[in-house]
Specification:
alpha/beta
Length: 475
């Protein structure tokens, strides 16, 4: 604390108002604690997810899909002679969604009695924070402090961000004109989502990645399918490729590329999106003034109760090691708040689902076939193709499949992979099945409405049991 600085005391301080932080603050408030939420961005209530991540990206993905469908539905009898994109209007739509949700979070925080302080928090000791505000500073002391400060984008040193030509995801989601050509450096889910979106908006997209395959931490078949689909939309790939340098000019940037095989080429682009992952951001938190510890990659070390090695401090969300996803962050927010009031909560979820909002969507949960094969775990599996689903065909979305993995003896469901339309909405059924200890027979014995995409989950379970009536031979 700065000498002479006014300081206030509260039960719980939450640092960061992303999905981890705001959920923790609301829950702690609901449980009767006096809570202060500190957010460094004066317009950032809701964090990365709401302002620069999940929500704006999904609003743009939706718009890109509608725009694409307008001009690609002739075989369903829809002829649109002139479909144009007013990107400024699209951005207005996106901002209106963000505004509604920000106001919603603010109202929920108010209702839970949470005080909001805008400023950057730094630890002075385990129970004391110094807050740097726009025109002032203040001190805060608390019995418990929950760190929910998220992460930051990784950079490519050869082409540093400039916000105009070399962009982060934050900036690409704010573009008011569509670049004629767009390079995307990266091969993870954000790169894939943005490739689909901007190709559909009309950019000529090129994905440049160091690895031999895209989505390299997933089932190889998923990466192959994703690449094929993107190529069908017109996206070009440079695999095993380094961006050696970039030279900016009036038209954009010339990227000097070199493949592992030694092929060198210079390719011009209007803009480049760098999407090469994110890292935790702990440098400016003053953690050295506490007993909280970080691991070798910079993540704050926690136990299953989200407690750090400092008895006064908890940490949640992307600042901790694990899938950097908003739904995991929110789950942890509730645990941390409940632990602060002495409830016996802990991270006991068996699985964290993952989704890529590509076309088609891809979603997975629990054990995947490559993991099972690698670990020698025995399993049975069943697959049902979208091309055999009445709902998928009727909606002209025939590409995809549902695959389930189960224990060969007990038939307990171990994992699932869904590739296809509405995969993002359907995956929770398999997550619930795993959490509830459901067997293949439990899902196949549950009447699913017809015709729906979810029927494909039932059919995949029946296929694993070799009794699927909609597949020749039952599987
Ligand atoms: P954040 O949301 O990053 O929030 C941290 C907050 O802390 C920020 O508001 C920051 O300003 C504040 N802060 C930082 N330091 C301080 C400090 N010292 N003092 C005060 N405040 C501070 N996840 C999904 O699950 N689904 C998706 O579809 C999805 N799409 C994404 C798309 C993109 C383009 C990106 C970039 C991410 C996406 N994510 C998605 C990931 C998701 O956004 C993050 O996992 C999630 O936001 C993490 O939440 P968090 O609360 O841990 O951190």
């Amino acid at each position: 604390m700065v000498v002479g600085e006014m300081s206030e005391h509260t039960d719980v301080v939450v640092i960061g108002s992303g999905p981890a932080g705001y959920v923790a603050a609301i829950r702690a408030g609901q449980l009767g604690k006096m809570v202060t939420l500190v957010e460094k961005d004066p317009v950032g209530l809701g964090g990365l997810c709401l302002h620069h991540g999940c929500i704006p990206s999904k609003a743009l993905i939706h718009t890109a899909n509608v725009f694409w469908d307008c001009t690609h539905s002739k075989d369903q009898g829809i002829n649109v002679s002139l479909a144009t994109l007013d990107m400024q209007k699209t951005q207005e739509f996106k901002r209106s969604v963000i505004e509604k949700l920000t106001n919603g979070i603010k109202a929920l925080l108010d209702k839970a009695g949470v005080d909001i302080v805008y400023g950057r928090a730094e630890f002075v000791s385990s129970t004391e924070l110094h807050i740097e505000q726009e025109h002032d500073t203040m001190g805060l002391t608390a019995d418990k402090i929950i760190i929910a400060t998220g992460g930051k984008e990784n950079t490519l040193p050869t082409i540093p961000f400039d916000g105009k030509t070399v962009l982060r995801s934050t900036e690409i989601l704010d573009l008011e004109t569509i670049p004629s050509s767009l390079a995307i450096a990266g091969s993870g889910y954000i790169a894939m989502e943005m490739a689909h979106t901007f190709q559909k908006f009309g950019s000529k997209v090129t994905i440049i990645h160091r690895s031999p395959t895209i989505l390299s931490n997933m089932d190889a078949k998923v990466g192959e399918l994703m690449q094929r689909q993107l190529e069908n939309f017109g996206v070009t790939f440079w695999k095993n490729t380094e961006i050696i340098t970039g030279e900016k000019n009036a038209r954009g940037i010339d990227l000097h590329l070199e493949t592992k095989e030694g092929v060198k080429e210079t390719v011009p682009f209007e803009k480049v999106l760098v999407a090469v992952g994110r890292s935790p951001q702990t440098e400016l938190l003053g953690l050295k003034n506490t007993q909280a510890k970080i691991d070798e990659r910079g993540y704050i070390i926690i136990n299953e109760k989200c407690q750090t090695s400092d008895p006064h401090i908890l940490a949640i969300g992307d600042i901790t090691n694990g899938p950097a996803l908003a739904h995991r962050a929110m789950y942890m927010g509730k645990i941390a708040a409940e632990v602060c009031v002495g409830l016996p909560s802990a991270f006991d979820a068996q699985v964290v689902p993952g989704v890529i909002y590509s076309d088609p969507e891809m979603a997975w949960v629990g054990m995947q076939e490559p993991d099972a094969v690698k670990s020698g775990r025995s399993f049975i599996s069943g697959t049902f193709p979208y091309s055999a689903s009445g709902r998928s065909l009727g909606a002209n979305r025939p590409i995809g499949f549902v695959k389930v993995l189960a224990d060969p003896n007990s038939h307990l469901i171990l994992g699932g992979l869904i590739v296809g339309a509405h995969a993002s909405d359907m995956i929770a059924e398999l997550g619930l099945a795993i959490e509830m200890g459901a067997r293949l027979e439990d899902v196949s014995g549950t009447i699913h409405p017809h015709p729906t995409y979810n029927e494909a989950i039932l059919e995949a379970c029946e296929s694993a049991l070799k009794k699927c009536v909609h597949l020749p031979g039952g599987k």
